[in-house]
Amino acid sequence: MKSLLKWTALSVGSVVAIAHIGVLGHLIKRQPESVIQVPTINIPRGTPYSSYKIEAGKDGYTIEYKANDPKILESQRSLDLNKGQSGFFGGKKYEDRKEYRTDQFTMEGVRNMGGAGTLAGEGKSAKDIECIVADAGARSQGAMAGTAISTGLLAPAVSSIPYVGWLAAGWVNLLGQNVGSAAGSQVNSMISDC
Questions:
Q1: Is 69 exposed, middle or buried (0-12, 13-18, 19+ CB in 10 A)?
Q2: Which of 70, 65, 44 is nearest to 53 (CA)?
Q3: Cα 54 to Cα 46: distance, rounded to the nearest angstrom
Q4: What is the DSSP letter of 158?
């Protein structure tokens, strides 16, 4: 009976010892409740101008990702102005200006030229738009007619001038184009009532 009691005590002691080791291991690995586990977030890799906004809380997290942010970049330039006098007795005044400007452009380098994106945004009426289109067509037709007339009538006479005839013929053609464009615009404004 002593041996049975001995084996029983040894078995119960072994079970209690193993249970204690298991409980200690569980308590050592257990994290304190005050420490919040932060999830591992794999942020997408984009362009150098990408931006991220991450909000995390008890209920989870949200990620806001913007590629090419900011969409519009800005370049600023300023003005330097130097005034003074020059000359032997300082009688001649001069002004040296270096002007700078501010430009907005996209990441590809396309510069914003200003103004609205549509004609309606500029405050143009349908009549104004119609007049602009008609004037452009009239100027184009007038320029072609002026060039044709000057090439046929005046350019052969001017091209016979020694040494500069070829250059003078070009000038005559440009003059004919400008005069024809202005005449076409004037005729259009009388006909279209613009």
A1: middle
A2: 65
A3: 16
A4: H
Per-residue confidence (pLDDT) for residue 178, from 0 to 100: 92
- DSSP string of 82-148, one letter each residue: EEEEESSSS-EEEEEEE----EEE-TT-PBP--S-SSTGGGT--HHHHHHHHHHHHHHHHHHHHHHH
0.85 surpassed by pTM: no
Regions of the chain short of the pLDDT cut 70: 30-39, 44, 46-47, 68-72, 86-91, 106-123
Instruction: Please give the full DSSP string across 2-67, using - where no structure is assigned.
Output: HHHHHHHHHHHHHHHHHHHHHHHHHHHHPPPTTSPPPPP--PPP--TT-EEEEEEETTEEEEEEET
Point out which residues pair with 84 in neighbouring strands: 94
Cβ burial 109-133 (10 Å sphere, 16+ → b, else e): eeeeeeeeeeeeeeeeeeeeeebee
Identify whether the C-beta of residue 81 lies closer than 8 Å to the C-beta of residue 96: yes
- Spell 145-171 as b/e; 16+ CB within 10 A means b: bbbeebeeebbeebeeeeeeeeebbee
pLDDT at residue 119, as a whole number: 45
pLDDT in tens, 161-190: 888 888 989 899 999 999 999 998 888 888
Quick one: CA dihedral 12, 16, 21, 22, positive or negative?
positive
Which H/E stretch holds residue 159? none
